Automatic annotation (TrEMBL):
One of its GO terms (molecular function) is diguanylate cyclase activity. Coiled coil: none annotated. The lineage of its organism: Bacteria, Pseudomonadati, Pseudomonadota, Gammaproteobacteria, sulfur-oxidizing symbionts. One of its GO terms (biological process) is negative regulation of bacterial-type flagellum-dependent cell motility. Its cofactor is Mg(2+). Keywords: Membrane, Transmembrane, Transmembrane helix. This is diguanylate cyclase. It is an enzyme of class 2 (transferase).
Amino acid sequence: MKTNKIKPVLFVGLISILILMAASIRSSLEHMSDYNKKTSSLITQNNLKTQYYLALQTSIYHRHISIRNLYLLKDEFDQDDEIMRFRSYATDFIKARDQLLLLNLSKGEIKGLDKLLELVKAIQPEHEKILESIKSGEPKTKILSILEKRIHLQDKIVESIEQIIHAQKIESQNIINNIKHEYRNTKNTIYLIYLASFLLVVVISYLVLRKTQKLEDRLIKANKNLEQLATKDSLTGLYNRRQFNHEIESDWLHCSRGNTPLSVIMIDVDNFKQYNDAFGHVRGDNVLRKIGMKLGKVVQRETDIVARYGGEEFVAVLPSTSQEYAAEIAYKILQSVRDLNIKHVSENEIVTVSIGLATKIPNHNTEYMSIVESADEALYQAKEMGRNQIYIKKDN
């Protein structure tokens, strides 16, 4: 009798446990599926946003370089080609903007994007002035004046893009935290249901945790990539223009307090446009990478920095460095690029660089841009004197 009574109890208990296990498994799978969908959707959204933010940044950067090229070009046909190229970058910008507007943007990203579009609209008249001045053959000094006026707008545009990327990182982190919170609640619920089948709970929890860790690792990696975009040049891996400004301003203040000299070396690849026209942008980009690697090997002190200043221009900042030592570094850079022995358009030519060097002892009455301008003037002199050489700017 007891056996017969126990069997139904065991049967009912077994059925109850199986029902609990089935309900738990179903609940777990539903939560895992929902979690995976949310996380996968976030990763997809992040990747698309990163792609389109890069497209925005690249089109703006290329328009900036194109304007500089127009300033340097003298041939009308070359100018017309460059103007067409300049306007095509605007098309790329609009396409990337339209794609971004189709995505699920946070309030911070929408605000940043609106600010970016306002800045782009604000700088457009300056671009048109420059184009009109160039086409009408107005003096270089006037064109240069307009170029200088738009620099602060250009910097604001770059800063705006970086703010959007920062807003995306914050939004991603908030979503991650919400998903983690949902996951913790789900796990606690599952533990209560799984009292009768503890081992199964452990297995499922392990699988969920392992999946969670993989997804979190992917999100962390995506966030690191976003952070690197804000400070590093995507082509060469060197510091970008914005980070360069931050670093040199800090070095300027440091040298000012210690009354020690600061040296700046500006490097420009000679006749790089002709190289690109002859061999294509892929090989041109490869040349810039190789030169960037050489610069990193020559400028080795922890206190020194190397950055891609823009286009085919690089810059090195050497704090607490005399002009004599900086000149040695500049010569090593000049020679190391020659040693690459990269063939140029002509069979008898190789890729070379022109270098401008300036050294100053900073003080509180001057800004760090004064030494950048001096180095840029020295670079101009080096090119005027025939390229493939160093010009040292004497500090009055």
